[in-house]
Amino acid sequence: MSDIVPTRLCTHTADALAVNNRCLEELEGQPRIFEAEDSQFIPESIRCMIPKKLVLKVSAQNVHATQVMLTKNIDLMRGLSNGSRGVVKKFSKAGYPVVKFFSNGDEIEACFDFVVPIRFAVRIPGCDEPACRRQLPLQLAWAISIHKSQGLTLDAVEVSLERVFAEGQSYVALSRARSLSSLRVITFDPSVIKANERVVKYYDSIKENAALEEEEENFVLRKRSRLSSEF
């Protein structure tokens, strides 16, 4: 997986955008812009994994490549699922990106020559029916926010946990890695790690119940021991 750069999970969306924009800017080559087609107006404030505008590049020397990630299950039999990592190798004659995908550390022989736009349903608050966005099922993957990574399993991950601000945020980030060997923690500040109060109370109650059960068992054992000694 030498072509793959670990996806950095950021606590803040702005940090992820900054990383992706900087890395894309550093690549040589002409950018290709892919504009989504929407069935109706979709506000920018709507949290959506599918970008309105996707900018991709192919390096002239083909040494570095645009890091991308699938945003939809394409071919589960071949491991091409939501969260699969890949790199843009070239653009087809039709203008679509040809992506070299990886999964579980192994290169996938994709069953298609290029990635084409597909339809996504986007739910908008206050609307009965979801909007439709037609776009490539890809997003830049040098970095993504921890929030957007929920539900994904990534093959190469690096995380910074010094600016965690939400309950369970560190757990979400760490559990995105497919294995311990595919995870790298860059920075860590234990003082900012937060757990939900209800979760803490729940586990405290389990400990208390376990302690009570142990005390009852010990009481029964002591009583049996005394009775046995009397006879």
UniProtKB/TrEMBL annotation:
Stored CDD domains: SF1_C_RecD
SUPFAM superfamilies per UniProt: P-loop containing nucleoside triphosphate hydrolases
InterPro entries associated with the record: P-loop_NTPase, Pif1-like_2B_dom, PIF1_helicase
Pfam families found in the cross-reference section: Pif1_2B_dom
Domain (DNA helicase Pif1-like 2B): residue spans on this chain: 47-91
Protein name: DNA helicase Pif1-like 2B domain-containing protein
